[in-house]
Amino acid sequence: MRGLWVRRNESIFEDIFKSPSQVISIAQNDLKEYKQALQMNKVALRNNEEGESRTLRWEKPRTGSVKANWDAAVDKKQRRVGLGVLIRDEDGKPLVAVEGQKDNVDHPVVAEAQALWKAMVICRDLRLEKVIFEGDAQVIVKAVNNASEDFSVYGSLTEGIKHLLKGRTNWTVQYTHRSNNAAAHTLAKESLHSQTELVWIEDIPDSIQRIVKRECHCIE
């Protein structure tokens, strides 16, 4: 179509006439160049993703701090949410793992907010003073770190989280890529198959232990 349009304009405004075969040849060349550009873009994107996956990794918290990774899994059909929390020390050693559930919830962002709330309540009850709360729900992380009042559908949850953060200057909430949140995500998915909250102190499930070992190996 572009070739026909150019041919028309050249014929009208520049008194240049191209035969149909010339137009077809130009169109074929344009199509070839377009496909080559698409292929180059795909290769560049793949290389970028591979490079990103090599650099992304779970990071240990600062000395004297713990890191609480949190995540949620949603079963929309059952309107049920699984919550996962894993707390690790400065060496990456698991301290506490928790699987929890919430019924009558099918909104993913609300589920993520509830997972963060769960992580904070656990750390409060354990009297942990220096905590990095890390999750892959960027919307929630931004909302919690925003000083303005949240009027969204999950605003009551984020405002409650902000209230928990008040006065706890050594508690921070930060975002991480989902590939760095595998342990908490696995806990959240597995909790969908449980009927009650499960808590492990140091002796965590094998499925989580394998993830932790792999992540610790990556940061050694």
Quick structural gist:
The protein has about 220 residues and is α/β, with parallel strands linked by helices.
Oligomeric state of this protein: single chain
Helix content: 40-55%
Biggest β-sheet description: 6 strands, mixed
How is the largest sheet built, in terms of strand order? 5-4-1-2-3-6
* CATH second-level architecture of the largest domain: 2-Layer Sandwich
Radius of gyration over all CA atoms, rounded: 26 Å
Helix-strand layout with pairing:
Blueprint (H helix, E strand, L loop, with lengths): L1 H12 L6 H36 L10 E10 L4 E9 L5 E10 L4 H18 L5 E5 L2 H7 L10 H11 L5 E5 L6 H10 L6 E4 L4 H14 L1
Parallel strand pairs: 1-4, 4-5
Antiparallel strand pairs: 1-2, 2-3, 3-6
Helix pairs in contact: 1-2, 3-5, 6-7
Describe the structure.
This protein has 220 residues and is an alpha/beta fold. The protein folds into two domains: 2-55, no CATH class; 66-219, Nucleotidyltransferase, domain 5 (2-Layer Sandwich). Helix content is 49%, strand content 20%. It is built from seven helices and six strands; from the N terminus they run ααβββαβααβαβα. The chain has helices at 2-13, 20-55, 108-125, 138-144, 155-165, 182-191, 206-219, and strands at 66-75, 80-88, 94-103, 131-135, 171-175, 198-201. A hairpin with a 4-residue loop joins strand 1 and strand 2. Helix 1 packs across helix 2 (20-55), helix 3 (108-125) packs parallel to helix 5 and helix 6 (182-191) packs antiparallel against helix 7 (206-219). The chain is globular and about 80 Å long. The N and C termini lie far apart (58 Å). Residues 2-13 and 48-55 have low confidence and may be disordered.
